[in-house]
Structures are given as structure tokens and as C-alpha cells.
Design brief:
Helix content is 34%, strand content 30%. The protein is of the alpha/beta class. The chain has a 7-stranded mixed β-sheet with strand order 7-6-5-8-9-10-11. The protein has a 4-stranded antiparallel β-sheet with strand order 2-3-1-4, covered by helices on one side. The chain has 2 domains: 4-82, ACT domain (Alpha-Beta Plaits), CATH 3.30.70; 88-281, Rossmann fold (3-Layer(aba) Sandwich).
Length: 283
């Protein structure tokens, strides 16, 4: 099998979009491996993701040039990706390392198609873990007077490493509106799904006291509105009165890991398209 690519697009819904894409791929000797589409009747927008394989002579730049007339005809917003190029990722963490450890394991066994370029933290706790994995670790402490400079250093690192995704793997600091505006749809956060209930410290203890029956996690793109960005993935696990606070916390950590891993994987596989404030996820 030759090189593999993914084409994603969004445009006003009309007849012949799928046929035009398929005919284009046939003309360029490409074989469709997976195709998914969705037409949103509420706003008349059509979304599509096509994974396809080329032959030994297929070049991405030629495909892109050849597709431009079709994209113009249908007024498409589109992207073409080479799946051999893994997105470069910068991971941020504070003192809770369960999501970081999970991502590092999946990365080591090649279960998640990313390239981790660095780990950043406002604490030194995971410096040795990063060193054991051969990944650069950057300690960027935060003080009120230096927060702006810390974010400038963070963005400089993100750009200099050629990263396209920032993963907040339980990074317990609020990013400024200015920073969020510089990484639209390029930063993913994970948190428990109790919000807006049980805010602040010790949310699992608060939930346990109230007899909550479901514990969940939400992964979303980061925006200026705290924990209000477009949702990528959510999941829940059932708990009951017999479970201790510690068991509830453990259940929450497990589901946070799996939800974050799925969100990062779908981003890396180019399965997420934006539809206003909502995400379209072609699983």
C-alpha cells in the first residue's frame, strides 16, 4: 500500500460533493480506505472526512493543487494531511500525573499517533519521569508577577518545537485569554464532568458527600471561556454508596485518562471538524 492521506472538508450542502471527491481520487489513482460524512440540516453545512491511499508516485502537493478547483466550486474549507507526519505535541502537567503517565505509555507502545516534543510543568515532580522517557522537561514556575512572561516562554517553546497541539494533562493553572486566542483548536484540556456543580478544590469529595451516582470526564478544546470550549469526548462510570472517596477518585482518574487519550488520538487522526461551537467527530 502506498502513502496514506486524510482529506477533511466543510461546505454548504448540495448535490455532487461526495461524487466530485470520489472522482477526483479515482483520477489521481487513489483508493478510499474510509469515508464519513454528515449534513447538518440546521445550518445547511456538509462535513466530510476521507482517508485514502495513493500509489508510489502520489505526492501531497500535487493532490492539493489538483483539488483546489473542486474546493473553489463548492466553497469548501478543507485540509489535506499526510498520515506519515505525526502531529508534534507539547504536554503540560502540574502535580497529578495519571493522564501524563497514560499518554506516555500509549506513546511508547505506538498506540497513539503523535510525537511528544516536550513536557512542561509548573512543578518539578515529573522531571525524572520525562528523563526516563527521553523527553525534554521544562520547569516553568508561575508567580503572579511573572505569569505573563511564563506564558510567553510557553508559547515560544510551543512554536520552536513545531508543535500543533498542546495537551493539558491535568495542568492546574488557568491560561490567559491572550494565550488561548493564540492556540485556537490547538489545545485540549481534560477535567471531571461535575461542572458546573462541585467547583473548586476536592470535587470528588464534594460529589461523594452528595451521593453522586455517575462520575465522568470531559475533554474539550481550550477557549477563553474557562472549561466552556467545544467538547470532543465525554464518558461516565457508575458509582454507588458503598464506594469510598478514594475509590471514587480512582474511578475518576481512570476515566480522565481514557477520555483524554481518545480526544488526542482523534485530533491526531484528523477526525474532528468544527461546526460553530460544536465538534463533529468522525470515529
Amino acid at each position: 500500500m502506498g502513502p496514506r492521506f486524510v482529506l477533511t472538508l466543510a461546505c454548504p450542502d448540495r448535490i455532487a460533493i461526495v461524487a466530485s471527491v470520489a472522482n477526483f481520487l479515482v483520477e489521481h489513482h487513489c483508493n478510499i480506505l474510509d469515508s464519513a460524512q454528515f449534513g447538518d440540516v440546521s445550518n445547511g453545512t456538509f462535513f466530510m472526512r476521507v482517508c485514502f491511499a495513493g500509489d508510489s508516485d502520489t505526492r501531497m502537493d500535487r493532490l492539493a493543487r489538483g483539488f483546489e478547483p473542486i474546493a473553489a466550486r463548492f466553497a469548501m474549507r478543507w485540509r489535506l494531511y499526510d498520515l506519515a507526519v505525526k502531529p508534534r505535541v507539547l504536554i503540560m502537567v502540574s502535580k497529578f500525573g495519571h493522564c501524563l503517565n497514560d499518554l506516555l505509555y500509549r506513546y511508547r507502545v505506538e498506540a497513539i499517533p503523535i510525537e511528544i516534543r516536550a513536557i512542561v510543568s509548573n512543578h518539578r515532580d515529573f522531571a525524572q519521569l520525562a528523563a526516563a522517557q527521553g523527553i525534554p522537561f521544562h520547569y516553568l514556575p508561575i508567580e503572579p508577577a511573572t505569569r505573563r512572561r511564563q506564558e510567553e516562554r510557553l508559547y515560544e517553546l510551543f512554536e520552536s518545537e513545531g508543535c500543533e497541539l498542546l495537551v493539558l494533562a491535568r495542568y492546574m493553572q488557568i491560561l490567559s485569554s491572550d494565550f488561548c486566542a493564540r492556540v485556537p483548536e490547538r489545545a485540549i484540556n481534560i477535567h471531571h464532568s461535575f461542572l458546573p456543580s462541585f467547583q473548586g478544590a476536592r470535587p470528588y469529595e464534594q460529589a461523594h458527600d452528595r451521593g453522586v451516582k455517575l462520575i465522568g470526564a470531559t475533554a474539550h478544546y481550550v477557549t477563553e471561556e474557562l472549561d466552556e470550549g467545544p467538547i470532543i469526548e465525554q464518558d461516565v462510570v457508575r458509582v454507588d454508596h458503598a464506594m469510598s472517596v478514594e475509590k471514587c477518585v480512582a474511578a475518576g482518574r481512570e476515566i480522565e485518562c481514557s477520555v483524554l487519550a481518545r480526544a488526542v488520538t482523534w485530533h491526531a487522526e484528523r477526525r474532528i471538524l468544527m461546526n460553530g461551537r460544536r465538534s463533529i467527530v468522525f470515529r
